[in-house]
Structure formats: C-alpha cells, structure tokens
Write the structure tokens for this entry.
Amino acid sequence: MQHRARARHPACPLLDTAAPARSPGGVNLYTLRVAEPCAENWDTMPGDARARHCDRCRLHVLNLSELTRDEAEAALSQRTPGGRLCVRYTLDARGKVVTRTSERARLVDLLRAMQSGGAP
C-alpha cells in the first residue's frame, strides 16, 4: 500500500501532527499518518526512487521506503512544526512503514530460514 503525505495543498495529503511526539518534528515512522492522500502521480514526477519533484506543489517528495530507518526518521524530525513535507511510503502487513532497513532484515530472516530448511 503506497501513501504520500504533504501539507497545505488541496490535492496533497496532510501529515497528522496531532500524533504523539517522539522526534523534534512531532512525527516519526511510528506516528506517521496521512490525513488526506495526494492524487499526484509519482510515476510522472522527475527524480529517482528516493526522491522526486512535484511540479504542482514545487516540493520534493521523499520515498521513505527507499531510505534506511535512520534516514527516514531524520527526514521526519527535520520537519518544523506546521512545516511542509511530502513523503511516499509502503506499509507492511502489520501497518508499519517499510524502510530499506526493515526490508533488509526481512530478507536476511528469509534467507536464514531457507538455509535451515525452516519456514520463514
């Protein structure tokens, strides 16, 4: 499931800043919520897998799922209260934000299970 969050544009989602603060910006990977999903097409934005530029809002869109957990947390913590931030991310089956760190850990666990002959 892909989600994008961005503030102050009718077609763009808003970050829910009422979530409990764990980072200086008040939003982190555990409290990140999309108040209003964005309708802009990621595939048409110039950039790479980690970040693209939205010409409509003139903002860079970060793909948190292509960042490590530390990079994603840093990006969220650098956001000023009430500041604009646009992100894209994938949720796992438990509803947690997937990052490169969590994806790597999942693959390592899968490989270990395959080597031992057990199920993941």
Q: What stands out?
A: Residues 92 and 98 are 6 Å apart (CA to CA). Residues 1-25 have pLDDT under 50 and may be disordered. The helical segments are 69-77, 100-116.
